[in-house]
């Protein structure tokens, strides 16, 4: 089948929900379509193809997916609508019944999207049929590459997929399959392509990237060392990394590396050892605290983001207070707080004591307030200091935005010549709380 002959001249729009991994995968699909003549539909124009990459980490994510699907169908009634991703994998039989949805492909079949779209268009006169292509065990054992790019200088490189952990509240292993990865050689080649295209920063993404090597027998630390040698990439950031997989060797290397930034993101999920056991997490709070202390001892300026879930089944008032008290003593920078969401088929549903929605809301807000306190103090610690900032290309209210090496978001009056460059910048004393950045002055 000649994909170019079938699809050339078509236009497409792309919609992505969820994690950075999804954005990397959507970008790969977009690049493949572009290579055979499919262009992005101009703003406001109807598209021939609409691809929706979904998330299913919570019930809220499912609801956002459904809402987006209905909106896209309403705004592009003549488009071939394709739904992919985790929600498509877990609830594909429901999605395919939505009038206006044409193709549904599970999480492990994103590499087949372009071919399936071409087959659909080639059916001439029988385009009313809907198709569901769920990922099988074989698909969920295969690694599909992904690397996103947009109008910023940052790229998201997929290095790993799937998860072998079995946390009691999580559906992601069912949606994405077993832990698997690309080879170090192939990922270095991807980073080199990003550098050739002018990219300056790469974020390493995956479901459980610390588990890198299941497919190839390699180690995550060796991937990090190899990427550090790629010329042209000035910055790397490591996305969410399980605390039990964060080694002293990795912390020490990042602290002394050429291009890996002092920026970490660790999922704690609960500061109560009782709840961690109910969640089937693989570490106690003592190990988590040890990892944070190790980072701060080695990289005092590091930004540390921490994921926390509130309202898990079994979380009494006393156990939540344990979490609050534990976090109050930890040197994190910012919390990413999620309210527990019941997911069908998970073992967490067997746990007694359901937390009332109003209690989840209160607990969430308490941790949000604690997070804001820590973040504000972190910003204050660096007011007046000079740090390197990578400036992005987009313009927001006449300002250009950028991030310091340790992930402080700063703004400066827009100067097109600065886009994509790294400058020494003085972090201003005025923080714009509404916009979430600090004013700055280039020195």
Folded structure, characterized:
GO terms for molecular function: 4 iron, 4 sulfur cluster binding; metal ion binding; tRNA (N(6)-L-threonylcarbamoyladenosine(37)-C(2))-methylthiotransferase activity. This is Fe-S oxidoreductase. Residues 149-377 form the Radical SAM core domain. Residues 10-122 form the MTTase N-terminal domain. Pfam families: Radical_SAM, UPF0004. With 443 residues, this protein is an alpha/beta fold. The chain has 3 domains: 3-139, 3-Layer(aba) Sandwich (Rossmann fold); 146-381, pyruvate-formate lyase- activating enzyme, CATH 3.80.30.20; 385-442. 34% of the residues lie in helices and 24% in strands. It has 13 helices and 20 strands. The chain has helices at 3-7, 20-35, 59-75, 86-95, 113-121, 172-176, 184-196, 220-227, 248-256, 273-279, 285-298, 317-328, 357-382; strands spanning 11-16, 39-40, 49-54, 80-85, 103-105, 131-133, 147-148, 154-158, 160-161, 180-181, 201-205, 235-238, 263-269, 303-310, 334-339, 386-396, 399-404, 409-413, 422-432, 437-442. The chain has a 6-stranded parallel beta sheet, sandwiched between helices. Strands 16-17-18-20-19 form a 5-stranded mixed β-barrel. Strands 7-8-11-12 form a 4-stranded mixed beta sheet. Helix 4 (86-95) links the parallel strand 4 (80-85) and strand 5 (103-105). Helix 7 runs parallel beside helix 8. The mean pLDDT is 93.
């Amino acid at each position: 089948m000649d994909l170019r002959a079938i699809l050339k001249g078509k236009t497409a729009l792309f919609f992505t929900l969820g994690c950075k991994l999804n954005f990397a995968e959507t970008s790969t699909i977009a690049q493949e379509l572009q290579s055979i003549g499919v262009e992005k539909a101009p703003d406001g124009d109807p598209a021939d193809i609409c691809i929706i990459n979904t998330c299913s980490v919570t019930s809220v994510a499912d609801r956002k997916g459904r809402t987006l699907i209905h909106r896209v169908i309403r705004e592009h009634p003549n488009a071939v609508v394709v739904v992919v991703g985790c929600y498509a994998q877990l609830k594909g039989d429901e999605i395919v019944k939505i009038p206006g949805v044409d193709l549904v492909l599970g999480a492990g079949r994103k590499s087949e999207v372009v071919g399936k779209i071409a087959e659909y268009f080639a059916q001439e006169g029988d385009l009313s049929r809907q198709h569901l292509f769920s990922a099988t065990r074989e698909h969920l054992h295969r690694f599909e590459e992904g690397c996103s790019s947009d109008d910023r200088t940052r790229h998201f490189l997929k290095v790993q997929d799937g998860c072998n952990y079995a946390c009691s509240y999580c559906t992601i292993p069912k949606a994405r399959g077993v832990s698997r990865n690309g080879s170090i050689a192939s990922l270095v080649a991807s980073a080199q392509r990003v550098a050739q295209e002018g990219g300056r920063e790469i974020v390493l993404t995956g479901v459980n990237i610390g588990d890198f090597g299941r497919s190839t027998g390699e180690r995550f630390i060796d991937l990090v060392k190899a990427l550090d040698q790629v010329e042209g990439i000035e910055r790397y950031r490591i996305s969410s990394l399980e605390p039990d997989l964060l080694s002293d060797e990795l912390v020490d290397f990042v602290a002394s590396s050429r291009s890996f930034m002092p920026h970490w993101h660790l999922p704690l999920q609960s500061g109560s050892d009782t709840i961690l056991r109910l969640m089937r997490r693989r570490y106690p709070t003592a190990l988590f605290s040890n990892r944070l202390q190790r980072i701060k001892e080695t990289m005092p300026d590091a930004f540390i983001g921490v994921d926390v879930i509130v309202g898990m089944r079994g979380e009494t008032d006393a156990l939540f207070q344990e979490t609050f008290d534990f976090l109050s003593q930890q040197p994190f920078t910012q919390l990413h707080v999620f309210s527990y969401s019941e997911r069908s088929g998970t073992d967490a549903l067997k746990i007694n004591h359901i937390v009332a929605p109003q209690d989840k809301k209160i607990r969430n807000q308490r941790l949000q307030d604690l997070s804001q306190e820590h973040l504000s103090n972190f910003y204050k610690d660096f007011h007046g200091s000079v740090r390197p900032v990578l400036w992005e290309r987009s313009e927001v209210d006449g300002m250009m935005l950028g991030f310091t090496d340790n992930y402080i978001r700063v703004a400066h009056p827009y100067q097109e010549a600065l886009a994509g460059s790294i400058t020494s910048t003085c972090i201003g004393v005025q923080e714009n709380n509404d916009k979430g950045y600090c004013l700055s002055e280039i020195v």
